[in-house]
Amino acid sequence: MALRNRIAVTNAINQENVRNVKSTTATSIQTKRAALGEIGNKVNTLKGVEAKGQSLLLSKVQKKPIVNQHQKLADKVTEKPRVQIVKPVLKNLTSTTNNVISNPPQIKKEVESFSSDLLAVEDIDEEDKENPMLVSIYSNNIYAYLRTLEKQFPVEKDFLAGQEVSPKMRGVLIDWLVDVHQQFHLMQETLYLTVAIIDRFLQSYRSIDRKRLQLVGVAAMFIASKYEEMYSPDISDFVYITDNAYTKAEILQMEILIIRTLDYSLGRPLPLHFLRRYSKAGKALPLHHTMAKYFLEQCLVTYEMCHYPPSLIAAAAMYLAFFVIGTNDADENKSIWTNTLVHYSTYNKEDLIPVVRAIAGIIVNADKSKYQAVRKKYTLLKHMRISLRSELKSPTIAALGSVKLE
């Protein structure tokens, strides 16, 4: 009996559970089907598919307006002339396409490194456009900026007038620094920058006596080596080179004084920067370039050449090198200073002739000069023994150097 009652109770409970499950599932399935049915009907009516119970409504109400709308749109399109719609669009398109086609050449002219109206001027940066290290796009802008800097930091003529330091004392100092530069195996830019720092400092700070002049030169080379060299000499090396005439503390104090006097501005361009550009523009040989460097270093020692701008004195040295050795051009009637050199140097032949004659006078008298450091330096084989060449003693350069400048 207990077993029967338990079975009966369980059957009753199971039946109730089944009823509850059926009721819930039925209700849930009915709601889902109703919702899905509405969505499906809407989608089907939009696509033109006839659903059950709605085919009459679709045929009477919905199908006719859709056909009428398409017909109306087709009639409107056929009624309007196509010319009125197409012509303005075609004009705008042609104008925009013409502008797009005409703009690229203008953009290229602004980006290109070479811009000149002279027909005989050659683009010397054409072969360097594929090399990003040479930044040929900005080369002309860079040299234009260097010309503004040389005007911003000039060296006046006769800047030693009224000072205890004389031009002869300055010449002795620079001649000694050329030897020091050679013993330390420093870069070429370091020597040029050293002389530029000395001249600018002596021009601004006018109370240097002869006892401290060598200290100024040592401190200037110490600054220049820090500025240009990857591994600059130690300060103890400069103390040794002066035979312990100055201590480390004195060199450091002079270094601070020079930098403050120059207002920390050491960016005055060097003649060597412009000379490399002119050698490229004139297609100079290594012999021309080395001879021009010999002329420039002789000018570093000479006090009368200090006031010339670096770009001008570099152009004059390049001109004189071409004049002495001859150009690399087969046409002998062609002028030395071509239109390409005029364009890139911004100097005409008439601007260079006075400076060329001054340099020629220095070279003619180089054997008799008291300052022999540069001449001995360029007797070495690595400098092509330029100072020993017979062309430097020819009658033409002697006649050119004998002319006195006004």
Automatic annotation (TrEMBL):
Specify the Cyclin-like domain's residue ranges. 175-260, 273-361
Q: Which GO terms describe its molecular function?
A: cyclin-dependent protein serine/threonine kinase regulator activity
GO biological-process terms attached to the record: cell division; mitotic cell cycle phase transition
**Keywords tagged on the record:** Cell cycle, Cell division, Cyclin
Annotated Gene3D superfamilies:
Cyclin-like
Q: Where is the signal peptide?
A: none
Q: Which CDD domains match?
A: CYCLIN_CCNB1-like_rpt1 (cd20507), CYCLIN_CCNB1-like_rpt2 (cd20509)
Determine if Cell division is one of this entry's keywords.
yes
**Cyclin C-terminal domain location:** 269-392
Could you give one GO CC term from the UniProt record?
nucleus
Q: Which family does it belong to?
A: Belongs to the cyclin family.
PANTHER family found in the cross-reference section? CYCLINS
Full protein name? G2/mitotic-specific cyclin-B
**Its gene?**
LOC107273682
